Amino acid sequence: MPQDINSGQSIRYIKGVGEARARLFSKLGICTVYDAINYFPREYEDRTEVKKIIEVMDGEECGVTARLVSEIAETRPRRNLLVTKALVTDGTAFLSLTWFNQRYIKNSLQKDVEYIFFGKVKRTGMRIEMNSPVIEKADQSGKITGRILPVYSLTKGLTQAHVRKLTENSLYLIKDKLEETLPEDLRKEYKLSQVKFSYEEIHFPKNFSNMEEARRRLVFEELLLLQLSLIRSKGVSSEQKGIKFQPIDMAPLLDKLTFSLTNAQKKVFEEIRKDMESARRMNRLIQGDVGSGKTIIAVMAIYMAAKNGYQSAFMVPTEILAEQHYRSVSTLFDSLGIKVSLLTGSTRKKEKEEIKSSLRNGEIDVVIGTHAILEDDAGFDRLGLVITDEQHRFGVRQRAKISTKGENPDILVMTATPIPRTLSLVLYGDLDVSVIDELPPNRKPIDTYAVDGSFRQRIYNFIRKNVTQGRQAYIVCPLVEDSDEISAESAEGLAERIRDNELKGLRVGLIHGKMKSSDKETVMRSYVKGELDVLVSTTVIEVGVNVPNATLMVIESAERFGLAQLHQLRGRVGRGEHKSYCILINQSKSEISRQRMEIMASTNDGFVISEKDLELRGPGDVFGVRQHGLPELRIANLYRDMGILKEVQMAVKHIMSNDLLAKDEQYRPLADKLDYIMKEKFREIAIN
Fold it and tell me: How confident is the model at residue 617 (pLDDT cuts 50, 70, 90)?
């Protein structure tokens, strides 16, 4: 939050930036001085360690203090390559130095001067070398050696030196004007450093102890503001008066089901029922793994609304998914006197107008559809319940828009993206969360195998065998088309190759994100009808359509996907009566990649997988945090900082229970910053 006039100042006018470089910085989200000081290092380079040459170890990065003992030699082994070599010593041993295309080196080193050379050591027997070391005179060290240097994420055209200089100048501009957001009692209670110290030491730490102290304070503040924002956002919606539905007998609906509800489904519906029968507006998320039975819970809520005389809108991301839900829901409701309609972009104009008219007149109880439900002329008579499936696929505005078509209708959002239980509060703090943590007993586990590319022919043979038995297969690729920069199978290239070679004679379809929506729907429909044997795809099939006959999922370059995403893709099979398989082709030789594939092969539990993904990769965009509409975390790591998060939750409880933001003057700066964040970042988050 800009706390003074300088912090909101454009970086364009800071020394060494200018208009062209400011455009490059904007790609990193750095436009103002405030942005610059809040662009935190991703790691640090420790240049404080200086050793005797005789002590250095092969592969380590360190500095040595030494003098030149040879003439500097320059050679040109080929065009556009200048190699500069020198020999230095500190009296304990000799060190050979090499630089590439650094013309200034020859004129910058003198024989009678002591320098610090910092770089990575290569030691072979008695020979000790260092390639492209940085150089600084020993009596002037502290600028680029003898200190801890921040390392930032970059974009093309910017160097570490550019970002460091901007950060240094930005800190100088506002270091005495940074306002302390956290009250003294809170800082004392949780041992948090002051704001000025924190910003200086996170960027240019005197030692790692100071850096950790600074980081702890900044992480605490970031998570504190996030939690308070979410609670306030949730408070707005939870205080809203909603529809008080009357209790109804669910037996007529449940008697029509061909299966029994799991205990988890019963528990979750009980939470929904209490919400709907209360006078406050329901704002609830159902989180359940692939195949856990979220849709029937939604149907039960719709039934409750309909029997109370209210309409429901059920919005899903694709037409095929809408049609699928329409078929299953209308089959259940037809004999129960509940009228269901389907409204999508493909609905014929005349039929669309009739449906919209019937909705406005209250003749339709339930509309299931895509974005078409959001059209301005799609009105309702008594909209009481809004359900969105795979809610992260819709923008916050879209979800908010449909809910305004009634008078505070209850909101139910559903997702099959598994989020670690420990983090649900952070990601969904503005919603009440229900978790279906149990799969129906008839759901068969999917056998998963991780292999390398040498198994490809055997995999194609296995696909043929499955197709011969009347089954269908998916092959998922990370790229749409071939790339010179990325070595991975592309959907277009693979589909073309296997049609003509390995799977010749089989009906191979192709679907990817660059296709028109109508073309994607056509291909997907053909696959659903069994008119295609193999569907080559990108991740567009990650969410949605149910093809019980598809029993084999092959994922090319599986190392390029997050574990949660691999789990979602795997969930496209195993939906019918036949045994299903998932084969992960892992091209990477790295240990972390091997561990990730082992996790996939060892469990079908999406929550376990998401915890492991978080642990191995860090939060990043593992859970699509940006899609959930939350502000991006600049410094906190939701896995590493779980301990701090727990402390933050204690602090939040204390602040809220004592109403300190309103009653204690010490908390005024924190309250002001929170107001700013709510205004700027959370303008569209609360679904109200």
Answer: low
